[in-house]
Amino acid sequence: MVGMAGKTKPPGEAMVRGSVVVHRRRCGKANCRCADGESLHESVVLSYSEDGKTRFLMLPAGEAARVRAAVEAYRSERARLDEAAEAGRAALVARLGQARGRR
């Protein structure tokens, strides 16, 4: 697949919306090391919002870097799209302003 900037992107996970974070939690077992609240269990997860709810997708150790890159690609493309949308709005406002001046 070729992106808008002419760069070749792998199919599927080229872009992912969300954030890669370290999720720390207690498991709830009374005799576990996490019960003291100090030595919590840690997992690298993709945190994302779906239908107004925060969801977590646990990532295998070998996937974290790939998913981080896909998240960054999404953010970069989103920023580029936002800039293009702002430029389009500014052009529309200018064009409509000129049309009013011609009346």
Spatial ordering of strands, largest sheet: 1-2-3
Main structural class: alpha+beta
Number of spatially distinct domains: 1
- Number of beta strands: 3
Task: Classify the beta-strand content into a percent band.
Answer: 15-25%
Give a brief outline of the structure.
The chain is α+β, with helices and mostly antiparallel strands.
Would you give an account of this structure?
It is a single chain. The chain is an alpha+beta fold. It has one domain (19-102). It has one helix at 64-102; strands at residues 19-25, 41-50, 53-58. The chain has a 3-stranded antiparallel sheet. β2 (41-50) and β3 form a beta hairpin. The longest helix is centred in the C-terminal third of the chain and has 39 residues, at 64-102. The protein starts with 18 loop residues before the first strand and ends with a helix. The model has no long low-confidence stretch (mean pLDDT 87).
Task: Quickly list its features.
3-stranded antiparallel β-sheet, 103 residues, elongated, alpha+beta, 38% helix, 22% strand
List the helices and strands and how they pair.
Elements: E1 19-25, E2 41-50, E3 53-58, H1 64-102
Antiparallel strand pairs: 1-2, 2-3
